[in-house]
Write a structure and sequence with these properties.
The chain is α+β, with helices and mostly antiparallel strands. The protein contains 10 helices and 10 strands.
């Protein structure tokens, strides 16, 4: 498989994404763990099996001694681009975004890893937090209700493709787990808040209304998912995330 730089569509610290005749190629850095690449392919295949219309994994290949995923191409704009280019219709797009997330949460995939286990591992790995804070976060996590809904883990408008026919599809299932939908919503709120507090507040209001969930319940997850996001070691996010962890009311 030959990849041309002119077909590069996304460049991130650990991967590059190309468009080619066969579909979309996610090419990972040579330092990226091989197990993570195969796990993403497995996660995506398991989500496919739920019946959601998502871009299907076609194969796992090596390109220039780097691991890559070949994934079906879905034409369209990201919902993020549409929100930014047509701000007058932000609320309409946000409603569609929330409806799509609720459709994801309506599915089950019993072979996926459990979200609670993943969050516990991430919190335990955080040496930026002292042992007392980690203990309090883990205690809060353990007290939260255990659910088994399909959770995307990185549900944000850049991962929703809006097709020309108006049909939406969700991409990038690397972080998919089964667990509590409100934890998934808390992560989405946090991802919005890192960029735009107004959008974050609109999202949370619509999610809670459409899912009939108390806003306070989603907010209880925020310190936990902020700690999980901290493991991505993004220096630009660190102060913001630490503030969310600091507001924990450990009573």
């Amino acid at each position: 498989m030959q990849l041309d730089q002119k077909n590069l569509i996304v460049k991130r610290p650990h991967k590059e994404v190309y468009k080619c005749e066969e579909g979309i190629v996610k090419l990972f850095e040579s330092t990226h763990p091989k197990a993570d690449v195969f796990n993403e392919a497995l996660n995506t295949a398991r989500v496919e099996a739920t019946g959601l219309d998502i871009p299907k994994v076609k194969e796992v290949v090596q390109v220039d001694e780097k691991w890559a995923l070949l994934i079906e191409y879905k034409a369209g704009m990201t919902l993020e681009d549409m929100m930014n280019s047509d701000p007058a219709n932000l609320e309409k797009y946000m409603e569609q975004f929330v409806d799509m997330q609720l459709e994801v949460h309506s599915k089950k995939s019993p072979l996926l890893n459990k979200l609670k286990d993943k969050l516990a591992r991430q919190i335990n790995s955080l040496k930026e937090l002292d042992a007392t804070t980690r203990y309090e976060l883990l205690t809060r996590l353990e007290s939260m209700p255990k659910h088994d809904k399909l959770c995307h883990g990185d549900f944000n408008p850049s991962n929703v493709i809006y097709g020309k026919n108006g049909k939406m599809t969700v991409v990038d299932w690397a972080h998919a787990t089964q667990g509590n939908a409100s934890a998934d919503a808390a992560m989405t709120y946090l991802l919005f808040a890192l960029k735009d507090q107004k959008k974050a507040d609109l999202y949370l209001k619509l999610f809670c209304k459409k899912s009939d969930t108390a806003m306070q319940y989603v907010q209880q997850w925020l310190p936990i998912v902020a700690a999980a996001q901290l493991t991505k070691n993004n220096e630009m996010e660190k102060d913001f995330l630490m503030r969310w962890i600091d507001v924990v009311d450990f009573q």
